[in-house]
Structure formats: structure tokens, C-alpha cells
Amino acid sequence: MINNFLENILPKSSFVEFSAQKLTSAKIVWSNPYGISPPDLDEHAFYIPIDGDHPSASSAKDIKLFLGERYGGVGVTSNGGGARCGLRNSIQIKGIGKNPLAGSATSFWHSYGGESLAGGIREAIWSEISHSALPHGAVRIHGLIDTGTRVPAFSSAEGTSETTRRGLTIREAALRPGHFVRSLYFSRHDEARHGMASDAERTRAAVVALAQASDAAPFLSNSNHQLNSLLIAMVERFADQHAAATAKRLSHGLQSPSNMCMDGRWIDFGTASSVSDYGKIIVAKHGVPFGEDSQIKNTINEIVLSIQRYLPNEKKRFLVPPNDILSIFSKKLSDSIQLEFLKLTGIPAWDLLSIDNHLTKSAFSCFKKIILKGNSEPFKLYPACAGQDALMPEKMGSYSLNSLIRLISLCKNKQQAEISLFPELNDIRLLHEFIDSYWNLRDACLFKKNPSERNSAHLFIKINSLRINQGTPDLYRHTLDRTIDMHVASGLDSKDFINNLINKNKISLSDPIDGNIDLSAWIGEGSIFSETMAPLLVKNVDQENKLINYFQNRTSNDDEKNLMKKLCETVF
Q1: Which helix (H) or strand (E) holds 141?
Q2: Percentage helix, strand, coil for the chain under 3-state DSSP, each rounded to 5
């Protein structure tokens, strides 16, 4: 009936069919300008009305059929899967309305089916930033539609009279671990009412289908044991993704089988936040301290144990044991997180991988000591009291690794580094260890360059280091929520608002591409800096002043400001 790539992998029992009505006054408020197709009102402007919607908001005579996706795992509560999403032609519409997968015992906020336009804007911003910042990207948003109707504003109490604009988030379809995990609390009454197979039957059929079709997954290489290859590829991607996010101070907030993708991409950004430091900050009510991998390990356990349980006996003996899968994840995470943190020096990955292992291990060991010093108590961004939130602290331990790397990147020699860094790192032994390990790493990188390239490579490292260590306060959860709410209430056009936030933060979080850093979001179009040749920055006073001001506005240290000015003079 409806052609989509998930149907090539999942059995019919993994879906439930429902209809939605064509909206009469919908409008596209944002189309993705970054290389994917825009939404189409004739295809995507469909919804299921909620109580209070005027009949004229949609046409009951103009309907389309959509699929609800059945999946489980921790986090779906008593729903049977995606209770507010509709799938059609490999496009998922989030916020389409309450579909048959909404459990009768599920709380209002997790079953009423709607999505606020503000929630869609958050998804659009975070998906594009994550797509650029993380090695395996994110599920991307094609665009956002304003339905012309309203939904209840999120509140701690049901039945609130406050409403906000309703939106539809048009996004890519994605295969999740939850597609192969039980939804234990979805009732048989709800299943029978909609003519669905039992959740156990659904899960068994999905696992068998996965074993048969695993070689169709686009991120796999050929192997004699495709299901094992899929699981290994999945957990290694989880590790790469988590390592990069941690080093870049990005927190998803809540990761479970239902809001992760099997190819490593991030999805569902309701609890996402950037953080200011590497402390044990908790950004979501049921989240874990930042940087911890327990939620990911739980997800791995859930899918592996589910596959083990439902896989036919003749195939079980070939399956990699759960503990071995977790060991593969932990080993990959250990390697990836060292590389991602060392990239904070400004030295790109391709150079770090060629440096002596003793030097890289020594530098990473020092970085960990700096992070852990005085950094023991978890900090909750959202306290238990509803309606309140806490301010993000500038640093969460005794020292700020990002500030120290920014400072040392601008120093000419070790003596200057000691003077510049001592006010920020007053542990003399640790200070010397940091300076030595950083200097050894940078010198090892530059020594491998041709003499004619060393000056440019040195400047590249400095600029890159300043860029990636500056932080992204616009993306702190409470800050972004307020900014979006104010924008939605203003009724202003969303295109520039969304694109400006995306562009501003992508420039700080993206890795260099083909040996180049794109600085155009800071100082103007055409501003590219290359590691292997003279800077490709247009030489004019306006750009020089913009770059100086950009970095100087992010420090209160006069010595660093002066050093930044000298650095810019050498660049231009």
C-alpha cells in the first residue's frame, strides 16, 4: 500500500494502518535549505484532529493512509510504538495525531498525538547541527508545517487552558533498536481493539526479518554472519557518536531503544542540550550524568537479548554473546573518546592518527586529570520542582579544559604558557604536565609537515582550537527553549530564525572538511582556512576586525585578547 524502506526490512506486523485528514489552512514555515527535499503540502499536510479543533480545519473527505510503527523498549511507557507519528513513502510525519499505538493507560502528554510548532523548531535546529557535528549525523528534517490549529502547551498539569501553535515535523524514516524489542506494557486489549498481532508475535517476526534482511542495511560490509556484522557495526557507531558528542559537549539527554537509530544517527531531540563543561550535569528528568554511557549499554542489552530470545534456535549458536558485544562497544568507545578529546587541541584527526601512541595517550591522560579535578557531584539542569530550571554553570570542576586549551593555543612558548595558564590551573605539577603534553603533541604534528606547510598548519591548529573550544550557549536547553517560545509567540517568519541558529552553531561544532575550516558564518562569505596552504582568507580590514572581535568577545583575559590580535595579524 505505502512504499517505504522500512517495509523492506520489517514485517507487516510491525505496522498498523490509519487515516489522516487533509488540512485546509496549513502552511510551510521552514524548508530545509541544506540539500534535502522540501515538504509538500499535498503529501504531508495531514493530521488527526484533537478535541477543540474546528471542523473546517481539515477535510474529512480528503484522507490519506499512513502507517504507525510498532516498537518497544524502555521509554515507550504503555504505548505500542510511535503513537504520534505517521509513515508514508519513507517520510515520517511527527505530530500527525493520536494513532492506534497510543496506549489507553498512557498519560495525556505521551498519548494525545500532537506536537507543538516549537517542538518542531527544536527538532529542526538540533537535527541539522547534529548532522554536521557528529560522525554519523542525525535523522534530518525536510521541513515544518504549521497546521493552523493549536495544541495544549506543555504543562505539569493536564487540562491546562493554555495553547500553542501546532506543527507537523516532516522527517526521514529511521530503523530503531526498538523495532526489535518488546513493548511490555502495551495492553492486549489495545492490540485486539485495532486488530494487531500480539507484541510478542510482532517482535518475533521483526527479529526473524532482521536476520534475513540484515545485509540490506546500508552501513554494513559483506560478511558470512550478517546479523553479527550488523550488531557490531551498530555498537561501534554508537561509540563513535557518543565519543564525539561528549567531547563537543552535546547531550542527547535520554537515549533508549525507541529514540536511537541503528545506524548511529540521533533522533528525537526533546531533551537535547549543549553543556558548558565536562561535569556530571543531568539535562533531563530521567537522564543520567553527561558523558555516561549506561543508557546506550542498556539499549544494546535490550536489543541483543531480544534477538537472542526470538531468533530461531538453529541461528542462535552463531550469534555473538551479549557480553562480547558490550566489550566491542567499550573498546571502540575508549579509542574514539581519546581521539575526539585530542581533536580539541585543534590538531585534526588525520594528523593525530599518525602521531606516536605514547604521546597521544599521555596527553589524553592529562586531559582526564584536569576534567576530574573537583568534579564529583552531579548538577541537575532541571530540578524536581516543575516550572523551574537552573542556570548553567561556567565550569563544573576546579578547572576548565576548554579554557586552558584556548589559552595555550595562543602562547608562543612554554614560558609564556606557564604565565598565562597559572591563574586558571594553579596545580603546578598538573600545569607542567599539561603544557608538556600539549607541546609534544603539537610539535609532533608540525614535524611531519613539509617545512613550507608548517606555518599554515600551525595557524590552522590555533584557529581550529579557538573555534571548537568556545562553547555553544545558544544551545543550552533552557536558553534554547525560551528563545524558541518567544519566537513562536511573536508570529515572525521562522526561516531566518532557524537557519541563523543552525549556521552559527554548525561553524563551532563541525569537523574540518577536506582540510579546510569554513569561517564564513563569522567573518563573511568565502572565508576558508586551509591546513596545507596559505590561509584562503580575503585580506581586508573588515574581515580582520570581525575575526578579532569574534574571539575577543569570548574572553575576559587581556593577555589572550592581545595574543588574539597578534594571531590575526599573522593570519591576514
Answers
A1: strand 141-152
A2: 45, 15, 40
Distance CA 396, CA 406 (A): 17
Amino acid occupying residue 148: G
- Is the whole-model pTM more than 0.90? yes
Task: Kindly state the greatest CA–CA separation across the chain.
Answer: 77
Rounded to whole angstroms, how far apart are CA atoms 1 and 67? 10
Nearest C-alpha neighbor of 16 from the set 81, 110, 112: 81
Rounded distance, CA 142 to CA 170, Å?
5
Q: What distance in Å separates the CA atoms of residue 69 and residue 95, rounded to the nearest whole number?
A: 14
- H-run or E-run covering 163: strand 163-172
Is residue 550 within 8 Å of residue 479, measured between CB atoms?
A: no
214 is written with which cell numbers? 540484515
> What's the pLDDT tens digit per position in 109-158?
889 999 999 999 999 999 999 999 999 999 999 999 999 999 998 754 45
Orientation of helix 428-447 relative to helix 401-409, angle to 10°: 50
Kindly list the distances between the CA atom of residue 427 and the CA atoms of 169, 359, 362, 396, 536, in Å, as whole numbers in the listed order: 50, 21, 18, 17, 40
Which single residue is written with the C-alpha cell 536558553? 479
For residue 447, is it left (φ>0), alpha (ψ between -120 and 50) or beta? alpha
How far apart are alpha carbons 242 and 252 in whole angstroms? Answer: 9
Instruction: Please state the separation of Cα 252 from the chain's center in Å.
Output: 6
Partner residues linked to 520 by β-bridges = none
Terminus-to-terminus CA distance in the chain, angstroms? 60
- To 10 degrees, the CA torsion angle through 362, 365, 371, 373? -110
HEC profile of 89-118: CCEEEECCCCCCCCCCCCCHHHCCCCCEHH
Beta-carbon contacts of 36 under 8 Å, excluding residues fewer than 6 positions away, are 140, 142, 172
